[in-house]
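Here's a chain:
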Amino acid sequence: MIYWDHAATTPPYEDVINTMSEIMKLHYGNPSALHQYGEAAQKVLKRAREVCATQLNALPGEVVFTSGATEGNNMAIKGAAMQYRSRGKHIVTTMTEHPSVYECCKQLESLGWEVTFLPVNADGVIDVNVLADVIRKDTVLVSVMHVNNETGATQPLAEIGQAIKERNARTLFHVDGVQGYGKLPVDLSAWQADLYSLSAHKFNGPRGMGLLYVRQGVELFPLLSGGSQEFGYRAGTENVAGAAAMSKALRLSREGQPDFYKQAAELKQLLLQGISEIPGWVANSYDTGAPHIIHCSYPGLKPEVLVHALEENGMLLSTKSACSSKLSEPSRVLLAMGKSEDIASSGIRISLGREHTREDVRLLVEAISSVCQRFQPLTNREGNQK
């Protein structure tokens, strides 16, 4: 089997596995405990936070450990909305955000907040001028993802950050960085980001671990009440082993980012070229996007049929976001990009990892072509019936 679903989750580095195992064995004390086991665990946690901060060019006090991107995104958006509701109740995001952002904003909308969902162009990118025009005095937060998890579309974060701060210096800027870290350069200062969320298992770290960068001076309403852990933002006993393992993955992914970009960009071009030569296929990802995500559609055939047929050919990939892959409705992201319902209902996502080679790409294109030849009579018959 060849695994093509790195946007859903990544295999952890061997060093990450070893680090997590070692910390679980040696430092199982509660970091809040006063005895020596607790103090030892606290030192490990402190060091992990320092390493994470260094990789993000941030301060240790700006790194809040979470259970992953869903919690981090909710903590950023709801925490900011609640903390600064006296400033206003207007939030801005896009139509193509990950469900953990999109549904979070929809929930706040149902509770009385006003949310502006920005449209995107055919490439999946927002118009910065349109964004600037919708920012108001009562706009508390703008949330825009770095890399789209379905199509790989990238947003111009530096331009977005500048437009936000020029229109309203008090408006906070949150970036969902889950699909970008380790694949593209990250510069929180240039983006003027106030909040930035990551999930460790997206960059070869452990599941159930993430972080939220909270710029110094920004305050959040805590979503979890209880103890004073994580600077009072997240009550609960800290995952010491997970934090240490994530800090390792964060460092290794950042160090390997330039080489990965070069490798993935080359393979993406080969994939797009190979798929373009298969009759009936429509590409939904473009050269301008991130190097590791390729989304395409085969109108007339359900994506789950494609996924299972390709699995029979030794290829493991997904339909859309792993969080919504079991939902049968058309992709919200593709519809927002102006794709037809047929295209939005028949997409598959291929996401690259560090282990992939040119030979792997050749085998994948061959498998896709074989599956299409197998199902072409079926799709033609369905097309005629329509």
Observations:
- The longest helix spans residues 240-276.
- The chain has twelve helices and twelve strands.
- The CA atoms of residues 293 and 347 lie 13 Å apart.
